[in-house]
Amino acid sequence: MKNILILANGDMAKHFVQRIDKSRIDNNSYYITCSEQTIAHPKIDNLNFIDVDPTSYLRLKNILKERDFSTIFVVMNEKEEALATLNNIRIIRATTLVVFVSKWEDLELHDNDISVINLNDILASSLYEKLPNVPIIAKNVGLGRGEIMEILVPFGSSFAYRHVGAISHRKWRLVAIYRQEKQIFPNNATMILPNDRLVVIGNPLVLEDIYKRVNKRQGLFPEPFGKNLYLIVNMQQRKEEILLQINEAIFLSNQLPKTKLYIRLFNIHQLTILKELRGFETEDIKVHITYIEKNILSDIDYDVSQLDIGLFLLTNEQFFAKNYKKHLYGLMRPVYIFGYEPLYNITQTVILKGDKVEMEALSTSAFDFSESLGLGLSLCDYNPEGDFDESKDIIEHYETLSRFYNYKVKIVQKRVNPIRELLKYEEILHIAPFTKDINKNPLMNLFSTEVSHYLRGIRKHPQLLIPADK
């Protein structure tokens, strides 16, 4: 049991002690210089009253001689009395922790063993949190600077109907969800729903950004992964191929509102084409260069941390090159893979039915992307055995989102081989889950029924890979 000394007077002392009286968890012994009559019928046995003047040096010295106090509270109405009391404490005990309550703006205390509670700051913070569209932060937990925050997920949020594992968690963590008066400890497969209250922890500046993202409406792809597009170009390709990729990336950036395009060039051997590519730069298009190839992945990491990247664009060959796929997966961002058919010729997006968790994880991004580009959206359940019973929950989820977005989704069920059927399509973009085992073992793909295992060999259509970890 620790001894706590409270040097107090006035209404603040009264309410403080009454709050201690109501506590259900309290193993401290309190000594307070407030008269017992000030407190209305205290119930706790560990509250002791000392009827002395706390500003008196001799009285205070006698109190501190009798017991070893771990913490001393100074809760007084008048500035001169409070400072006189604090000065006496420091003469008697130089390093004891003091909690000093202040309502005076011109007060400056330079002491590492003093914790100042400013009443004006507390009042302003409480009033601020009553404003609409303002996050709630934990003031008495951790540092109390906003590193623990509660965020309400509104209807239409870019986080709604997404799996926790499909959202980037760099520099922050989602530790709990409160839904219908119940607490949920989320895993990667937990879906975030409208009206959920999210308890998040991380750097305060990062959490402020997360709060803004949660409150952004749907239809702003590539949110919530990030805002801008990032094209990775291997300069060893033919000039015509490079220009096609840049033009396609510019087209996509123009279709997605308020996005910028960053182009990262590497393997540069001809300075003439570099000068030509610099000509693409505008306020919304920037070109970055990696001169040493081994630095490309670290340059990508730096750009992601600085440029709010939400979507990578690169070729099939580059995506499946050594280390790229694994590295990009770790960054938890969608990936656009160029196909033989350019994006500006595409008329619809197609999702081949797969695992339920993965289908739910990519669903909102699929609606966002299709709506932004004005493309038709089809969910295709192709099963050679004709077994469609397992698709019921997935179809119901997509139909729910269809009503939510007011955007039609076409449900197609056929008893066919999914890969052969997919290759028959023209002018489509294939949306698929981005999982860590995508094409993990090419030899085993010959016996797999997972569509994602065949992505490396399907180069006809452009592909949009959405992070979907279970």
Describe the structure.
The chain has 470 residues and is an alpha/beta fold. The chain has four domains: 3-122, Rossmann fold (3-Layer(aba) Sandwich); 132-214, Alpha-Beta Plaits; 228-333, Rossmann fold (3-Layer(aba) Sandwich), CATH 3.40.50; 343-467, HUPs (Rossmann fold), CATH 3.40.50.620. Helix content is 31%, strand content 24%. It has 13 helices and 23 strands. It has helices spanning 10-22, 57-66, 79-92, 119-129, 204-214, 239-255, 271-278, 296-307, 316-319, 324-330, 356-373, 392-405, 418-424; strands spanning 3-8, 29-32, 47-49, 71-75, 97-102, 114-118, 136-137, 148-152, 162-163, 172-179, 182-184, 191-192, 197-202, 228-234, 261-266, 285-290, 309-314, 335-337, 348-352, 376-382, 409-414, 428-434, 463-467. A ten-stranded mixed sheet has the order 16-15-14-17-18-23-22-19-20-21, sandwiched between helices. Strands 3-2-1-4-5-6 form a six-stranded parallel sheet. Strands 7-8-13-10-11 form a five-stranded antiparallel sheet, covered by helices on one side. Helix 11 packs parallel to helix 12 (392-405). It is elongated, with a radius of gyration of 31 Å.
The tally of domains stands at 4
CATH class of the largest domain: Alpha Beta
Structure classification: alpha/beta
Using only C-alpha atoms, the radius of gyration works out to 31 Å
Q: Give the mean pLDDT.
A: 84
